[in-house]
Design a protein that fits this description.
two-stranded antiparallel sheet; 549 residues; 3-stranded antiparallel sheet
């Protein structure tokens, strides 16, 4: 900001009078009279907003906005915006003049992606605190106003928004576009709304292409600054949606990290690119969000960030996850990897040896450590309880039943053909009751994908999974020499969480095809497919609402 711009505005309290005090109603009317007496204010859109929201006492609505602007400045006539009658901060002096010049030279439609050429204010964008930055509660309220089907793009200073009736908000505020949810930041992110929303609000309401081009570029810069500040202050990465990350890349990390002379800061640029690369590798599913939420259910913002650390290597800076989010295979930091392998056991060594075969979400050649929990040593296991003998049974096997304790399964491993189909058919009529969500949390898959199947199909797939794993372990044991084997990697490929998840997802199509095939055969016979178990009548008598409702 040069000297001419710095002298183009004076403090509001010196030029006009003291700011109104929100809690002191006696200051509202005098402050409003002083405001309307200024040149150009009575014809502004801000004046119409205050009059329209509360025509009886507009000074109260004016006081709500000015209460959030203790450092308000009176702009010059050349920098007087119709959307706001003051300048919010000293470094924003001259913004409206720059935007007017940009708008006059802008004749193209809104480009597909934003660029640095559409930024009105020059760098730097990473500025130290100056005491005039918006408080966090104001930014949170501005984000809340953007949510929902009736959300509006509101500046952090617009404290009068809550007093405006719903029927009138469309006349004075910018309606959030339909595509906005794809570019919104998570809850708790301190990203300031674009400046063009404050100084050119009416242009945005009219759909001016120049205003919307500046809006997108400024939003990309603001969210990138919030991403860097979150890491510097809290060592976390904010879970931005993919399209918002594309906007940030389109503006350019070099331009965002530039200093006052326009020269890029290599350290800041490398940090921003490392955080964006990590976000590309993290899963963006409802199951992953719930995994984060469960770590701190009392924190509403916990689903919007992940603890990270930057490690500098030969290839430059790389952001790594610095918290254990098992069972997800993520690019974990060295501290998390060493903590997982701290317990000496053959399983950890087997997992470490097969790390080169794992690919974490988003691709990459350098996999993280496995998410399998270490198996405790045998000495740490509890003492086995003595077997409980069952009463003798009648018949020739009575003597044998006294010697052999009762087990869960006293037969050979079952093949799929040995399980009667009607046992699976009974499971197909179970109500959901959270079965899909529970399986998604354990298997690390998207709950929305599992909810497409009935709960009975999910239970049937689990039954198939038990048989598949049992057969796989039995085959593996038969291939082990009598003197034993240390090929734990092979066994890990059979019973590891990743293998179980893959086997379960493969079983679902088979279960559905089997149920549809049996339903088709029943319909060909003519009796119809049994929509309930044989004991349906008894269940209907006990549960009058119907089976499975």
């Amino acid at each position: 900001m040069d000297d001419t711009e710095e002298t183009a505005a004076t403090p509001y309290a010196e030029a006009i009078g003291p700011l109104p005090v929100l809690r002191d109603t006696t200051t509202h009317a005098p402050a409003w009279e002083r405001e309307t007496s200024r040149m150009g204010v009575a014809d502004s859109a801000a004046h119409a907003l205050f009059r329209g929201v509360d025509p009886i006492s507009p000074g109260t609505i004016f006081a709500k906005q000015m209460d959030r602007l203790p450092h308000a400045l009176v702009p010059s006539l050349a920098d007087l915006s119709s959307s706001i009658t003051v300048v919010r901060r000293r470094r924003e002096v001259g913004y409206f003049r720059r935007f007017s010049s940009f708008s006059e030279a802008f004749h193209d439609p809104v480009p597909a992606t934003p660029s640095a050429l559409e930024l009105v204010l020059p760098p730097p964008y990473l500025l130290p605190p100056d005491g005039e930055e918006p408080p966090a509660p104001y930014l949170t309220k501005a984000r809340d106003a953007r949510q929902g089907l009736t959300g509006y793009l509101v500046g952090w200073h617009q404290g009068e928004y809550s007093s405006c009736p719903l029927a009138l908000r469309g006349q004075y505020y910018v309606k959030a576009p339909q595509w906005w949810p794809d570019y919104e930041v998570p809850y708790g992110v301190m990203a300031e709304p674009p400046l063009v929303l404050t100084y050119a609000r009416e242009e945005l309401r009219r759909g001016d292409p120049a205003a919307w081009s500046v809006f997108r570029a400024e939003w990309a810069v603001s969210t990138a600054v919030a991403l860097l500040q979150a890491y510097d202050e809290r060592r976390v990465v904010l879970l931005y949606p993919p399209r918002l990350r594309d906007w940030i890349r389109s503006v350019g990390a070099t331009n965002i990290a530039a200093d006052a002379r326009g020269e890029p800061d290599d350290e800041v640029e490398g940090k921003l690119l490392a955080l964006l690369r990590l976000l590309d590798e993290l899963p963006h599913t409802s199951a992953f969000v719930e995994r984060l939420t469960n770590r701190a259910p009392n924190r509403r913002d916990r689903a919007g960030w992940v603890s990270v650390v930057l490690e500098v290597g030969r290839e430059g800076s790389r952001a790594l996850v610095d918290e254990d989010l098992a069972p997800y295979e993520l690019p974990y930091s060295t501290a998390v990897t060493e903590a997982r392998l701290a317990v000496p056991n053959p399983w950890g060594a087997a997992v470490a040896r097969r790390r080169h075969l794992v690919r974490f979400p988003g691709g990459g050649d350098v996999p993280p450590s496995s998410a399998y929990e270490p198996v405790p040593p045998v000495s740490a296991l509890p003492e086995p309880r003595p077997p409980t003998l069952v009463p003798p049974r009648r018949g020739d096997n009575a003597e044998r039943s006294q010697r052999v304790p009762r087990r869960i399964v006293a037969a050979d491993a079952l093949e799929h053909g040995d399980v009667p189909d009607h046992r699976f058919d009974v499971l197909h009529h179970l109500p959901p009751r959270g079965v899909a969500l529970g399986l998604a949390n354990f298997l690390g898959v998207d709950a929305d994908e599992l909810e497409r199947y009935p709960a009975g199909y999910l239970v049937s797939a689990l039954c198939h999974l038990v048989v598949d794993v049992s057969q796989g372990v039995l085959s593996w044991c038969r291939t082990v020499p009598e003197e034993g084997s240390t090929d734990l990697e092979g066994l890990l490929n059979l019973v590891g969480r990743r293998a179980l998840r893959d086997a379960f997802t493969r079983s679902l199509p088979r279960v559905r095809e089997g149920a549809e095939d049996r339903r088709r055969r029943w319909s060909e016979v003519g009796d119809g497919y049994p929509e309930g178990p044989p004991s349906r009548r008894a269940c209907l008598e006990e549960y009058p609402s119907g089976w499975g409702r």
